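Intended use. Records such as the glutamine synthetase entry shown here are meant for training and evaluating sequence-to-structure methods. They are not intended to support clinical decisions.
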Amino acid sequence: MGKSKLEYIWLDGYEPTQNMRSKTKVVEDFNGTLEDCPIWSFDGSSTRQADGNLSDCVLQPVAIYPDPDRTDGWLVMTEVMNPDGSPHASNARSKIDDDNDDFWFGFEQEYFIMDVKTELPLGFPRGGYPKPQGMYYCSVGGLNTHGRELVEEHADACIKAGLNFEGINQEVACGQWEFQLFAKGAKKAGDEIWIARYLLDRLTEKYDYYIEYHPKPLGDTDWNGSGMHANFSNTTLRTCGSKEVYEKICEAFRPVVKEHIAVYGAFNDQRLTGKHETASIHDFSYGISDRGASLRIPIYTVSNGWKGYLEDRRPASNGDPYKIAGRIIQTVNSAVLEPQLS
């Protein structure tokens, strides 16, 4: 069968925001299954995950996808484990409580495409600003649309890799884009966001671009920040048919605002100001079709007889989908609900 290239991808131990790391393992007679991916290791002292005198960390494969850019290549998402087989402290995936995949997640990943030479978003001139926001959102044409070639190539790569890739659009700010992914199961949703980010970052290497995931890269200006809105549901939300149940679940988020913000991404206070389609980081609110609320109840859910999903609009673009999904599951499961009559 020849040789195959397996790209092992993991998250490092940097704080407050973890980075992706990867390295290639060449194996013979690989059959393309997760079970055939060997456990591997890396130098944790170089990624802030171990000391030099006991530096080995273990890579446990958890998901595998075809690599769209390599012949006989595969992308292997892994969890970082300690040598004794226990999850490493930096391993948030292992903490998700959703073994039955009852929770479904749709993440909307916003980001800025940055020019390596100018270190500015595409479309920004040196020493100034382009035209104000208004014409960039879902735009077409070279005057307002920047980076489409990269974005289209990334979409094709994600689809070829087998990700459940659902769409792309240019966002409100100049040089800002978004892609959407959906998955049944919180761990799978997190895996696919990280693989999609990996493919996007790797593509920038040939464009002299880089991706900025900071939630407010343009600072205190009148330009939108970047989020990673989390659309979520479980069996209750998908089937209850009850406004009261939805309100009880939304209210369960109110007393744990700080716990959510703590895992929703660094520097999110710069984005959650109550402006630019955000709620203030200091408040909690929910409303039907309200993009200025913490939680949005989609109009689809209401028109479908209160059977659908919710959107948490607070997660930042640099947030870890594993941590975000894990915290949402914990809060939804904490809601005290009356038994529903069949």
